[in-house]
Design brief:
Outer membrane efflux proteins (OEP); four-stranded antiparallel β-sheet; elongated; 67% helix; 449 residues; alpha+beta
């Protein structure tokens, strides 16, 4: 009987405890329950760069929009256009009014007031010559802007290529580090079974740790390349998604170019050559303006005069009309400084134009020589060197795992395959850079990575 009472008391205690726990859980659940319309969690804002991968074409389009140096260079065009409006201005007429005669002798001479208008007439076609020279300068400014964009496009493409190259190097070094870490694990396993000594494990571990420093350096180079890419975009640092979204492939087929055709295209289409041609036309316009400035301007004046009563010699008030023409005596024409300077500038522009054409031809031929050499270097690696290096490394590692090769041989094979791949990546980057230089020198653009 006593046992049954004790059991009933325990059951009541457990039931009360469970009931209390249920009440506490219900209260806490009611307190923590959300309202009928809970606000959605805040979504992180996507950066502007997240609209897609940063291909070379998209990157160059953004450079043309946001590069700070280019934006400053673009302002030279409206500045030159404003000079055209200034050159078309004509002299303003001058309005003169006041007292033209006051009797200070006390003889009673009449007091005369005057009101007149003076107009300067430019002779020799000065205004037209100024306008022609300003319009020629505006054309030069437009061609100079195009040449700035051509150079900027090449420099920005080189930065983009460097960004792709550093990523390839980083990926390769990370892969090598993983291979060395696997080698350490293999050596530790062989040490446990007694195949090798502890020195081999330590040596492989040191090599892996040393190479970890190379991986960190490669990551730093990626960041540096991204900063240069961001600089061309008009930023002080890359965006949070820029590194991830840069996409491109430096592996591409070699291209063939007609050297004579490229040289002719450069002479006709390169904006710096065109700018020198327009500069020669502007120099001729300056010579015409210097000749026009040697003509003397005519100043024509018309005035109205009124006299007042004078005492003691009374005279009735009267009005008078006066007209005069003024022309300067051209003694200054014995000096020919402005005209001589304009003529020398015209001769200089002729030499500069020839130098621009020659420079374009030399740049095209030089870029072609270097591009063909870079293309041949890439072929050396793709026609068997990479495959052979991989085979040697795999065979050496396989032999080492079975005790047929030393650790030094494995490390040498690893260094060899790494050097081969890094040199191959360098050849790919150089091939891409030289392709950019060829098209930049020729004044064309159809590069895509």
């Amino acid at each position: 009987m006593m046992k049954m009472k004790t059991a009933l008391q325990k059951m009541r205690s457990v039931t009360a405890f469970l009931g209390l726990g249920a009440c506490v859980w219900c209260a806490s659940a009611a307190t923590a329950a959300p309202g009928p319309n809970p606000p959605p969690p805040p979504q992180p804002q996507q950066p502007a760069e997240s609209g897609g991968a940063w291909t070379l074409q998209r990157y160059l389009r953004q450079v043309a929009v946001s590069n700070l140096d280019l934006l400053a260079q673009k302002l030279n065009v409206p500045i030159a256009d404003a000079q055209i409006a200034i050159a078309r201005m004509f002299p303003d007429p001058q309005l003169t009014g006041g007292i033209s005669q006051v009797d200070v002798s006390g003889q009673g001479a009449p007091l005369l007031s005057t009101l007149g208008v003076s107009l300067q007439l430019e002779m020799g076609g000065k205004r037209g010559a100024r306008s022609a020279a300003a319009e020629a300068d505006a054309q030069v400014a437009r061609s100079t802007l195009e040449d700035f964009l051509r150079t900027l496009r090449g420099d920005a493409s080189s930065a983009y290529i460097d960004a792709l190259y550093t990523r390839m190097v980083r990926e390769r070094k990370q892969r090598t580090l993983e291979s060395l870490e696997k080698l350490v694990a293999i050596n530790q396993q062989r040490l446990r079974v007694g195949d090798i000594g502890e020195v081999a494990v330590l040596q492989s571990r040191v090599e892996a740790q040393r190479f970890h420093g190379d991986v960190l350096a490669a990551q730093a180079e990626v960041r540096v390349a991204d900063l240069r890419v961001a600089q061309f975009l008009g930023k002080s640092r890359p965006g949070p998604q820029l590194e991830v979204l840069i996409s491109g492939e430096l592996r591409m087929e070699g291209r063939t170019f007609d050297e004579a055709q490229l040289v002719e295209t450069a002479r006709q289409r390169r904006p710096d050559v065109r700018a020198q041609q327009l500069a020669q036309e502007a120099a001729r316009a300056r010579v015409k303006l210097a000749r026009a400035n040697r003509y003397t301007d005519l100043i024509f004046n018309v005035s109205w005069q009124r006299s007042l009563n004078s005492e003691p010699f009374a005279s009735p008030p009267y009005d008078a009309l006066a007209a005069t023409a003024t022309i300067a005596l051209p003694f200054s024409r014995i000096y020919h400084g402005e005209l001589d300077a304009a003529r020398y500038s015209q001769d200089r522009s002729l030499h500069l134009m020839g130098g621009a054409e020659l420079r374009a031809e030399v740049e095209v031929r030089t870029a072609l020589v270097r591009y063909r050499a870079a293309s041949d270097q890439v072929k050396i690696y793709t026609q068997g060197v990479l495959a052979d290096a991989d085979k040697v490394h795999a065979a050496t590692l396989y032999t080492f795992q079975r005790g047929g090769a030393t650790l030094l041989e494995v490390l040498n094979a690893q260094r060899t395959v790494d050097d081969v791949y890094l040199n191959y990546y360098g050849a790919l980057a150089e091939h891409a850079r030289q392709l950019v230089l060829v098209e930049q020198a020729a004044g064309i653009w159809d590069v895509a990575f």
